[in-house]
Write a structure and sequence with these properties.
The protein is α/β, with parallel strands linked by helices. Helix content is about 25%, strand content about 20%. Bound molecules: zinc ion (2 copies).
Amino acid sequence: MAKFVCTQCNKEYDQPTPDGFCTNQPDCEYGSGWLKEVKGAPASATDATDEATASAPEPEPIGFENEIGLCILMMDGSLSMGDLAFPTTDYPGDKFQLVSMNAAGGVWSLKNITQADNALIALCVFGGAPKLEWIKSVKEIVDDYGDEAAFGEYIRLILETKTPEPRTTNLNEALKLAHEIYQAYLKGGLSEHGGIKDFKPLVHKTVRVGGGQGEEDFISIPNARILIYTDGEHNVTQAVHNPFAEEEQSVLLSAFIGEEDGKGVKQMQKMANICPKHAPAQGFFLIHSPERIQTLKGLFRMASGASGFCPSCLLMEQAPAEEAAKAETLEPDGTTVPETVEEQETIDDPQPQMNTDGHG
Ligand SMILES: [Zn+2]
Ligand SMILES: [Zn+2]
């Protein structure tokens, strides 16, 4: 009788793997499955907690035309990221591992998009100060790192060795650098940040629904997203200043890794965009239990593909393709018309929501 079972693919093991994660690649979705000890019961017995790890189907690939999309990943590499990600569970990884595996998995899932050379990723780490490591296209990343696991290890290495001032967390400086890169993208040139120059930033025209007022307007949203996460609190003296809040439509997504009453949760939530489709929902994601691993990976994917804003957008992306097609009608002119189908979605995944979900 197996003593350990993968939470993702149910592969049985007599011994735990060295790192506690499933080695059943490529069948088992990378970065999601870890081994859970089976206590007394046969491995086939239904474990009530397994439902939380139902695998999300791969959404339809996102296509870029001849224009450039950008995702800025602003990743917290502070020392506390070396602590266990979910200390009250049997999840074996630390927070570095959690984010590096899922960032790699999210980016890697875009490798087959059309125009993968036009989807840019700006990889940044931050502690007391931020540092841009590089700007590469998804195609260059795939060519340079070869496979998802190697890319994940690379991200971990960068977080652990390149983070400036890892004892502190300065959200202001991180947001400032992200905003500078974003502004350069809007102007069509990233050469001062080591990226390409003379390109056309991609812009989508979208209907924005007013928050509960029934109002709608058309806005142009650049095909760029910034994803910032932390596991801690802004711990320098100035208050948090968020330059993205001054944009007509913020493209800033935020996440907090830790308990929902953790210090810093509110700061991260406050800086997140208000979704143009799902207002007043915000683009904030709380990663407080292993059941949110799929959410985290989906968040990295969504941000990397510059394709959504909030947990409801993510749910639609992770829904089966035909559901997504029903939920969103693409008009011939590329206008996205939001409908209300997402309210009827029933997905086994824990619903990624803001902080009012009754502890998942
Ligand atoms: Zn597995
Ligand atoms: Zn949304």
